[in-house]
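Supplementary Methods S3. Input chains for the assembly prediction are listed below.
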Amino acid sequence: MDTLWRLVAISISAILVQNFVLVRFLGCCPFLGVSKKINTALGMGGAVIFVMALASLLTWLVQYFLLAPLGLDYLQTIAFILVIASLVQFVEMVLIKNMPALYDSLGIYLPLITTNCAVLGVTILSQTNGYNLLESVVFATAAAVGFTLAIVLFAGIRERLEESDIPEFMKGFPIALISASLISLAFFGFQGFNL
Amino acid sequence: MNISNILIAAGVLGGLGLIFGLVLGIASKVFEVHKDERLAKIMEVLPCANCGGCGFAGCGSFAQAVIDGKAPVSSCSVGGAACAEKVSDIMGVESSFVRKTARVKCVATCNESPARYNYSGTTSCKAANRLGGGPKSCSYGCMGFGSCVSVCEFDAMHIVDGIAVVDMESCTACGKCVEACPKGLIEIVPENNKYFVACNSKDKGSDMKNTCSVGCIACKLCVKACEYDAIEVKDNLAVIDTVKCTSCGACFEKCPRKIIKEF
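Predicted structure tokens for the full assembly:
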């Protein structure tokens, strides 16, 4: 029971209170780049969930079985990046073969997940917080769900912005950035939830 | 400074890299997507300007459409005949490129169609056209101010004797002059259609004696002469259907005003 509550607390914290994109400001690049249409945003969110969950699983195993016993904690960053990069390449190959339409719509943002600080952030944060394997994976999945929530919300707003009467110099990225900051302010309202 | 520490670290990272490399290598074979080899060959031959003139979103889409059989081999007008031939070779089909050219539907200089008023404004056809259809007596004819000349990138349009003339050798049928002409005088036709009606006037024959001494009066002698039903009179103007026309020249012989020109 305790474990379950703990997992719920970790999830809510990762999705809402400490939302990765809007509160921790990790992963802004795909957030701004893929949020033009709700469909693409959902696709991107799905890809991020898959990558984050698997990445946290693999990196936790690497840390526990390889780095910690051999005293190589200082290699954490580079080893994790190695794992994440290979994983994203693998995901790309699967997508090209099985879902070419999704691959085309994601474009360059799929390999960008590799260097995305959100994925590396999730794996390193798991280690900092001292989570065990199950907690790590749940934390990463929840973080990705939070990312998906944020990007889909933002895509909905951006689709509406397309039809709005905006001054010429604000069109495109300027108004997008300002809207993102306003949504971020809204999510800061969750601060203070100590779970 | 223990050398074994460095070795262990290097070994672990190197080992991880090797394992992942192997896994990715195997995966690339398992998840291989078969790409038609002709795609790359066609892409090499295309001009790759990604102009969209063929109607497809970029040269890559056009190449794929040709392979799928959804696009005729000669659709790329920027590449022209040379490109169409190479693409047909790769696809193993006959080349069917039809060379087109622009033609100006007016031959009336100021002798045939004198000026109605003195125009001293901007030397632009669009500007002059707004003043009651231009300074020429015939309001459908070429005013000769050269808007088409200024848009032509291939130096194929020139003003000779006050009317625009196309140099068919240089013309690539890109269509810019057609858009530039405010009277819609220029049309793109296949080069091997030898005869065409060099007039754009929708005025009735009886009105023509005041406007132009050589224009088409819609007497319909050409329509009667044509055996292929390729010429008809619409809006007091004879129009040749380039698909049905066989360039036999019967209309050319019969026209009393000699307004059907031969190329």
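The first strand of chain B starts at residue 100 and ends at 104. Residues 10 and 192 of chain B are 73 Å apart (CA to CA).
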